Amino acid sequence: xxxxxxxxxxxxxxxxxxxxxxxxxxxxxxxxxxxxxxxxxxxxxxxxxxxxxxxxxxxxxxxxxxxxxxxxxxxxxxxxxxxxxxxxxxxxxxxxxxxxxxxxxxxxxxxxxxxxxxxxxxxxxxxxxxxxxxxxxxxxxxxxxxxxxxxxxxxxxxxxxxxxxxxxxxxxxxxxxxxxxxxxx
Length: 185
Known about the structure:
This protein is mostly helical. The protein folds into 2 domains: 32-111, no CATH class; 125-158 and 165-181, no CATH class. 63% of the residues lie in helices and 0% in strands. The protein is built from 9 helices and no strands. This is Transposable element P transposase-like GTP-binding insertion domain-containing protein. Residues 1-57 form the Transposable element P transposase-like GTP-binding insertion domain.
């Protein structure tokens, strides 16, 4: 069993056990905050697509945004901790969480959708350079690079599901450029 899966199973079973013990009165109601923090942790750190909304990766759905709003209110309730003098470092950390706009700014960053990715068109190095410039730049002629690409294409292409992955000729040219001068295109 992978460690990640074991942690998720353990976390889920501990949260379920805590919820049961709280409802039976075996644990104090303060343990409910621990359970809520566990759900918040799952919400912000999950990479699996399970059925519960808090276990799905955060993408800003209405349910997830409602959960985040509830946690903001929970952090605002934690202001009772800021006057305690148990440990100045802990007190300052809690004060920073509850008072500063920094925390709310982080929540806004997480809650708002991400900027769309920008894909730039890659230049075709074979058309961009003349034969002499190509040979100076990559230390091999165009026909030789095409031959090397044809011979190695099956070996160097990765099984990637990503869009805009590098083609075999681009990988060969990047490697040749790096070997020629120690830098990429």
